[in-house]
Amino acid sequence: MAQSGTDEIQGAETESNPLTGSKSMRWFFVCMACLLLVIVAVGFAPSFYLPNVLLPELAATGKLTFPAYIVLHGVVLSLWYLLLFIQALLVTTKRVHIHRRLGIAGAALAAVLVPLSLFVVTRSVARSNLGALPVIGDYGLLVLFATLVTVGIRFRRKPEVHKRLMLIASISIAAPAIVRWPGAESALPFSFLVPQLTMFAAIIVHDIVALRRVHPATLWGVAAYLVVVGVCVPLAFSPLGQQLLKSLK
Questions:
Q1: Residue 192: exposed, middle, or buried by beta-carbon count in 10 A (0-12, 13-18, 19+)?
Q2: Is the pLDDT at 78 greater than 60, yes or no?
Q3: Cα 249 to Cα 233: distance, rounded to the nearest angstrom
Q4: S-S: 21 plus which of 66, 157, 210, 247, CB 3.0-4.6 Å?
Q5: Angle at the Cα of 59 (from 53 to 63), degrees rounded to 5?
């Protein structure tokens, strides 16, 4: 099954032209990366980027002072989304040689981001009294992110595959930023599912317009996300999920 999927992706890549579609279509991935930057910036602005400006009274109490590992996680995560935007911009403006050099930094960031994020989520169970859904959901989506990025790096010389998997991977771990938007926390899990599914739908529409079909990398990536969410959400509300949460406290 895995080999069949690989052959399908490679075959589709051979048939398609990376520059297929209008100029506006070629800016799609830059726009999506920019959107993710905005989502992260707005979501974490009150607690991480601009606490003294947006929450001055709370910041003055010292409640928004974080341990060093959370600050490091915030910096690494911010760099990941910033690099995603820069990389998409470099490809769109045909500076592929710089894009490939920065790809090493991207791989290094991902290698640091995954274990660091797992550590932050685990420590946050006791520190912030998180519920089962954000904990189990974050675990599952981080595994998905690591898998998609690894496969994306494997297909780095297949630009149509590479850029889709990197974008889908980045969307999949944007949930913590999305749920920090005003009113989002009270509407879990729909508050992060709807925006993420909307972004995936945008990729599908882009594929249909630009390629006249949905690219196999998009299908596999979105399907993997649906499987992870389909497992993690019910698990979080099950007795097993509650027991797992208790074991982490």
A1: buried
A2: yes
A3: 20
A4: 210
A5: 150
Question: CA angle, corner 52, sides to 50 and 56, nearest 5?
Answer: 130
In angstroms, the Cα distances linking 1 to 7, 166, 231 are 10, 22, 21
Look up residue 190 and give its two tokens. Answer: 């729909």
Query: Residue 176 — φ and ψ, nearest 5°?
Result: -60, -35
pLDDT digits (tens, 9 = 90+) for 89-136: 999 999 999 999 999 999 999 999 999 999 998 888 776 667 788 889
Task: Give the pLDDT score at 16.
Answer: 42
pLDDT of residue 24: 57
Provide the token pair at 204. 């599908």
Q: pTM here?
A: 0.85
Of 174, 152, 148, 150, the C-alpha closest to 163 is 152
Q: Is the pLDDT of residue 209 over 60?
A: yes
Interatomic CA distance for residues 110 and 149, integer angstroms? 8
The closest of 52, 76, 179, 187 to 128, measured between CA atoms, is: 179
Q: Cα dist. 14→19, 165, 170 in Å? A: 13, 17, 25
Q: The tokens of 208 are what?
A: 């249909």
Cβ atoms of 233 and 133 closer than 8 Å: yes
- What pLDDT is stored for residue 6 in this prediction? 45
Half-sphere exposure (Cβ direction) of 97: Cα atoms closer than 13 Å: 0
Inter-axis angle of helices 132-154 and 96-128, nearest 10 = 160
